[in-house]
């Protein structure tokens, strides 16, 4: 199968649909409220604890802007939140090239929306394994799966999506949107993609180094082996 090679894109993309799913909720209320001020018609798709946090942080009038990912996909979250965003409808909206008529037809076929921004940060694996006496099982359960997948999909598609992984960048993104009628440019999207891939690479490296430093006795001691 031939790869999709895109030759023409838009410099500036209006932010209409955002996925937000974060462990670190630093400055999240400010980000969400400013996004809604910039675009009152913005749709925010969110999961689990992030959905609840945003719902409590925004005014009653803005609740119409907030959509549960489970309601969007039609699939409830797996017990323990293990599967929330790993869904075809989500990734169609992340990886589709909206300049491609076949991709547009795919989205129309299942009622998917094209996401313009992803705000995601990951389970605190590094903080978890830094605690004295942490067990392998505690480390294992803090390995994020859906978050890195969304970040990588959004960052790969920087030609039309902004992948925001660091709360320290929220203000930079908001300033760009405020100055440009709610749009974000290719330069900023590319900078965010660079940072996003660095983020997931460091995350995977931390997991690899931690597991590489353990032995089978460290693992076995966590469980009753049948």
Please, could you describe this protein's structure?
The protein is an alpha/beta fold and 226 residues long. It has one domain: Rossmann fold. The protein contains 11 helices and 7 strands. The strands form 2 sheets. The protein has a 5-stranded parallel beta sheet with strand order 4-3-2-5-6, with helices on both faces. Strands 1-7 form a two-stranded antiparallel ribbon. The N and C termini lie far apart (45 Å).
Structural class: alpha/beta
Overall domain count? 1
CATH class: Alpha Beta
Number of strands: 7
pLDDT averaged residue by residue: 90
Low-confidence stretches: none
Strand order of the largest sheet: 4-3-2-5-6
> What's the CATH architecture name?
3-Layer(aba) Sandwich
State the helicity in percent bands.
40-55%
| Major sheet attributes | 5 strands, parallel
Strand content: 5-15%
Tell me the span between the first and last alpha carbons.
45 Å
Shape assignment: globular
What's the CATH superfamily, by name? Methylglyoxal synthase-like domain
In the CATH hierarchy, the third-tier topology is known as Rossmann fold
């Amino acid at each position: 199968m031939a790869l999709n090679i895109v030759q023409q894109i838009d410099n500036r993309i209006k932010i209409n649909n955002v996925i937000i799913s974060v462990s670190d909720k630093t400055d999240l209320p400010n980000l969400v409220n400013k996004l809604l001020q910039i675009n009152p018609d913005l749709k925010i798709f969110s999961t689990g604890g992030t959905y609840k946090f945003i719902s409590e942080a925004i005014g009653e009038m803005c609740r119409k802007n907030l959509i549960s990912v489970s309601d969007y996909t039609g699939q409830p979250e797996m017990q323990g939140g293990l599967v929330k965003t790993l869904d075809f409808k989500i990734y169609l909206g992340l990886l589709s090239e909206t300049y491609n008529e076949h991709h547009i037809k795919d989205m129309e076929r299942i009622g998917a929306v094209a996401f313009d921004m992803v705000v995601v940060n990951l389970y605190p694996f590094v903080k978890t394994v830094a605690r004295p006496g942490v067990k392998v099982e505690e480390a294992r359960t803090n390995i994020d799966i859906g978050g890195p997948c969304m970040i990588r999909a959004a960052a790969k598609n920087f030609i039309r999506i902004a992948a925001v992984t660091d709360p320290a960048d929220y203000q930079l993104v908001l300033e760009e949107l405020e100055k440009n009628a709610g749009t974000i440019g290719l330069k900023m999207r590319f900078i965010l993609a660079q940072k996003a891939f660095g983020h997931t690479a460091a995350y995977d490296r931390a997991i690899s180094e931690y597991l590489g430093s353990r032995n089978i006795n460290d693992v076995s001691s966590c469980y009753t082996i049948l």
